[in-house]
Amino acid sequence: MKQWYESLFENYAHKYDKECFVQGTIGECDFIEQEITQDRSLKILDVGCGTGRHAIELTKRGYSVTGVDLSENQIKRAREKAQEEGLTIDFQMQDARNLTFDGEFDLAIMLCEGGFSLMETDEMNFEILKSAAKALKDKGKFIFTTLNGLFPLFHSVNEFYESAKKEGQSQCKDCSFDLMTFRDHNTTVIEDDSGNKRELQCNERYYVPSEITWLLKTLGFKKIDIFGAKLGAFSRNDKLTIDDFEMLVVAER
């Protein structure tokens, strides 16, 4: 049986590119460049690259990027967009839990819930971190965002989705947050690229900072910094708070 995150992206590439949560590419790539001191000799892996927005922007800036995603439809759209821009980018259909790379990249990025936190078990989510870590060279760096588990302890996730709702965009409703598992079960409503309305039963895992730190330490990362993730404006100056829906993680070996 297909999981919700597989069904979601089957015919949802053009509409996905119009969603409000994917509009921060330029600022996010500015942050990535700062973190690698604009060293264009470095090889970058974009895990859960979707329609390739970060990979395309970084390639335009002169970096060598490989993008991987589980969705054939998203990868197809990423290739089309790269071609439209006259760029050659290696986009591959791969499962983030079991990447084929070993010690090949200087930096791995995984932004906007690029697979991690969407899996149905904690073990599968950990496999994604493990797989990304394995793809990195000895001194590699890992930058990713994930859902902030402190947020639903102090706020209603339902209210947050309600306030973020925009006409013609995907919507989440009927959220129920489970304190024992830190999972939010909800119904996501999207209109796909053919104009069909679809409802999917989703469940996503929220993480607290101490969990992320522990998971990354077990994978050999020595320096782990966690910040609030502001859309399109990632910054080391943003201390993570209970009001941040997402957190930004920067880990170094």
Summarize the structure in words.
This protein is an alpha/beta fold and 253 residues long. The chain is 29% helix and 28% strand. It has helices at 4-8, 25-35, 53-60, 72-84, 122-135, 151-154, 157-164, 209-218; strands at 43-47, 64-69, 90-93, 105-110, 136-147, 171-178, 183-191, 197-205, 223-228, 246-252. A 7-stranded mixed beta sheet has the order 3-2-1-4-5-10-9, with helices on both faces. Helix 2 (25-35) packs across helix 3.
> Can you count the beta strands?
10
Beta strand %: 25-35%
| Percent helix range | 25-40%
Class computed from helices, strands and strand pairing: alpha/beta
Describe the protein's topology:
Elements lengths: L3 H5 L16 H11 L7 E5 L5 H8 L3 E6 L2 H13 L5 E4 L11 E6 L11 H14 E12 L3 H4 L2 H8 L6 E8 L4 E9 L5 E9 L3 H10 L4 E6 L17 E7 L1
Parallel strand pairs: 1-2, 1-4, 2-3, 4-5
Antiparallel strand pairs: 5-10, 6-7, 7-8, 9-10
Helix pairs in contact: 2-3
A few lines on this structure:
The chain is built from 8 helices and 10 strands.
Which keywords apply here?
253 residues, alpha/beta, seven-stranded mixed beta sheet, three-stranded antiparallel beta sheet
